[in-house]
Write a structure and sequence with these properties.
By secondary structure, the chain is mainly alpha-helical. The chain has 15 helices and no strands.
Amino acid sequence: MDSNTTTIGPLTKRLHAFVQKHWRGFSVAAVIAAAATFLSEHYGAPTMLFALLIGLSLSFLSEQTTLQPGLKLTAKSVLRLGVGLLGIQLVFEDVQTLGTVSVGAIVALVVLTMGLGIVLSFATSRRFAYGILSGGAVAVCGASAALAFSAVLPSHPKREDDTILVVISVTVLSTVAMVLYPVLAKALGLSDLQTGFLIGATIHDVAQVVGAGYSVSDEAGLLAALVKMIRVACLPLLVMGVHFAFRSEGKSKVAVPWFLWLFVGLAILRSVVPLPDDLVSLIAEASRWMLVIAIAALGLQTNLKAVLKVHPTLLIILVIETVFILTGAMLFTQFYLQ
């Protein structure tokens, strides 16, 4: 009895100290996330964009020393947990319904778009990591991918500014694409099959893919969501590759980030075990909330003036990547998906 008390006592004290140190910063980010969700539901703009903009507008709060530990924890650990929980949305057997050629085309578009980002960053004498952030965000799943790649890139004074810039730009581009791509597909006379593939293979954020797809038809919406999930399935492999590429030379053993194991583990679990829909929805919603809270914390810690002073080249790189993946998807739909 005494040994249990002795064990529980220190653990309780450490937990209490941890909560006391971090709850204020986390709570501020969570309140911003709730406000962003409310605004998104009432005005239709992306939740992450609202969370980021509100966080940026209140960045002076990060000067409070009592908030800093919680904000740092939220922008790092809560972010990684949210990315890991994204794996629950994947079901590997769905890949078979598209066929080998279509899946290969999707993977090729993802890899080539990310490679283009890296090449453009070199060609314009920009930071190599920016090419990974921008290319990965456009190629895979927008803001969520940018946050995932940012989590494994080495520390740099400009890292948070780059991440914020990519999140803002890719979210705006994704929103524009959600409106324009269904119109483009109709103007080109594409079938529901072709439209679903085009939307799922090109639009950056998952929510905008679903919105654009179902605005055309149920068939286009379902296929667009499926194609998008295949792009998301590339995320853990790409993030792992980036992690190993930037590993410290002095380490003899490099561990795979825990949140990638969580991502892959949940995807495998979802694929082999018939999980209740309510449980899947609950975990997916928890993931969404964590990412929104994390992006709010990131915005709170960012100097908006510094972000707005970026060179136009950085924005042009994102636009070029977006046009590139759109062009590739259009060519595939026109010449293969008849």
